[in-house]
Amino acid sequence: MSRLLIIGCGGVAQVAIAKCCQNSDVFTEICIASRTKSKCDDVAAKLKDTTKTKITTAQIDAEDVPALTALIKEYKPDAVLNVALPYQDLTIMDACLEAGVHYIDTANYEPEDTDDPAWRKIYEARCKEAGFSAYFDYSWQWAYEDKFKSAGLTALLGTGFDPGVTSVFAAYAKKHYFDTIDTIDILDCNGGDHGYAFATNFNPEINLREVSAPGSYWEDGHWVEIPAMSIKREYNFDQVGMKDMYLLHHEEIEALAKNMPEVKRIRFFMTFGQSYLDHMRCLEDVGMLSTTPIKFQGQEIVPIQFLKALLPDPATLGPRTKGKTNIGCIFTGKKDGKEKKIYIYNVCDHEECYKEVGSQAISYTTGVPAMIGSMMVVSGLWNKPGVFTTDQFDPDPYMEALNKWGLPWVVEENPVLVD
């Protein structure tokens, strides 16, 4: 029996909220808090007659630490689930420390203003020291380790699918299939079709910034950075088919490299269609992906935020998206002195997700693990002081929960490797 404060009410949040309400034996009470309370009220109204979970709502600016701290102290949750924007990770962590509750999120911190001089100075030093230039990394949140440890609180970072489930897959493979893991390839395939000429399946600001950044991978103890979308491979995905995929930088590589230092190479690939890439390159070429404010007709606007307002809301894609996703990890290594390779993955159907919770599969595959990670923390199964990623705990109860709550996984022996 637990009480959870959920911050955010977008597409991923709505899936996490729905799954918490399905899991009412664990989540007996939830409070949905967002800048726009009416959205929270609408979600609560849709769910109240379908669940035993008591649902309340609140208005909150997640960047206002005193107000957020006051809300946490008033509601007295067992944990806070942050499914807002990555820009707000640090302020929510600050409020959790001040109020004395556990913290959970689905994606690591990145700044909204990448031109801020103070942030820029730290970022440029990190680029030089670490060897990759992505705007998002774990260093800002790992810096909270001593604070959470001293407070006796758990901060669980990145319990979405990737990062999140993919890191649990790595821990599971290490525990049950390998004595040593040599390589990890994370493959994210979205075979869905929403019918729009161009749209993003999650927050456009985050999605487009991530995809347009230089790619990078971990090899032999250091980062190798490459131009954006410059490494392409083809792979035949179960229930989806042959797709083009491109090497990207992704946050779980950073955590896995730190926590599994014996792994020689870790890469992340994501599938993209040619139409998506053509649109993205055109938008980047004309400056629409920029985070630098410009003056337009006497007003200051941020180009990528203006673009976000023009694009379809990812939360509205559910009823028109067909097809499946396939996300998983290919591992190579040794067991009992012999070479071994396995592929752990999940296939998720967009239309089935919409029938269940009114969402397309991208939000579903993030929102379900957000609920599961919260369950691990509030139940005490994953509960120790400090700041952690999902690969640092016993993977077995999380893997069991994936099967139970809508993301069943497959272990394939001797898969085709990515060259």
TrEMBL record:
Residues 5-156 form the Saccharopine dehydrogenase NADP binding domain. InterPro entries: NAD(P)-bd_dom_sf (IPR036291), Sacchrp_dh-like_C (IPR032095), Sacchrp_dh_NADP-bd (IPR005097). Pfam families: Sacchrp_dh_C, Sacchrp_dh_NADP. Coiled coil: none annotated. It comes from the Bacteria. Residues 160-406 form the Saccharopine dehydrogenase-like C-terminal domain. This is Carboxynorspermidine dehydrogenase. It comes from Butyrivibrio fibrisolvens.
